[in-house]
Each structure stands twice: as structure tokens, then as C-alpha cells.
Amino acid sequence: MNQKEDGTRARVLAAALRNWATIDADPSPAVARLVIRQPPEWEYTATVSITGRQYKRVLAFLRDDLADEHPGHSTPERAAAVIDGLVTEHRVAGHTHITTADLVEAAPRVGRSRTWIAAYVAELVDAGHLHETRRPQRFRL
Fold first, then answer.
1. Cβ–Cβ contacts within 10 Å for residue 41, how many?
2. At what angle do helices 114-126 and 76-92 cross, to 10 degrees?
3. Which of 1, 15, 51, 90 has a CB 3.0–4.6 Å from the CB of 95, allowing a cystine?
4. What is the pTM (predicted TM-score) of this model?
């Protein structure tokens, strides 16, 4: 039986949250309960009661943690890395060309507008990483 099946990870998370809630000793009454369940059957593991201030801190932590994965919050550097990775994937797959349609399909992963993607493609052309062809919106790798 591995860790996922025996609930170890869920129990460790529950213990960490319980420890945090205790150390963060807030005399206010509990306003929320975090119920910890373990996949794949989602069996109950533990419940941790938290105060209003602790609740806000947990939500803020989750928002910050998830912001990196939310496309609307992608930094230019992260978006550029996604496009660079896509160009590399095409090159490794043996493709000799890439189109703007290939790049725009990645827009949800990039987290930037089509206009931003077009401007970055122009930067790649200027830097010599992509080369314009006679066909519009098609670039040689």
C-alpha cells in the first residue's frame, strides 16, 4: 500500500494545519472547519477548526499559490518560457516550421493576449530564433 492509499499525506497535512492553528493562537471563536479527506475514495481523515483571521490567512495563501497557475496572472517571463518551450517542442518533434495558429493555441497556457504573443514572436524573429517565410503567419524554426 503506498502513501496515497494509506492516507499518510492527508494525516500529515491535517497535523500541520492543526499545529499551525494552535501555534497561531487566536482567541477568537472558530468560524470555519477544514475537513481533510484522502483521495482516491475521499475518506475522512481529520477536521481542523480555524478562526476568522486564520481563515483569511489560509485563503490568501491559497490565492498566492494558485496565482502562478492562473493564466491571467502570468508574468511576461513565464509566458515567454511557455512559448520558448512550445517552439522547442516543435523543433524536437522534427518540425521545420511553426505557425501563429500553433502559438495562439497555447494562449491559455501562456496567460497573455494574442497581441502579446505576436509581439513576442516578433522578438524571436528579431533575435534570429524564428525566421519569416513567404507565407504569412508561418515561421521557419
1. 8
2. 60
3. 90
4. 0.49
How much is the average pLDDT of 53-72?
69
Q: Across the chain, what does the average pLDDT equal?
A: 81
User: Which domains, ranges and CATH numbers included, belong to the chain?
Assistant: 3-67 (no CATH), 73-140 (1.10.10)
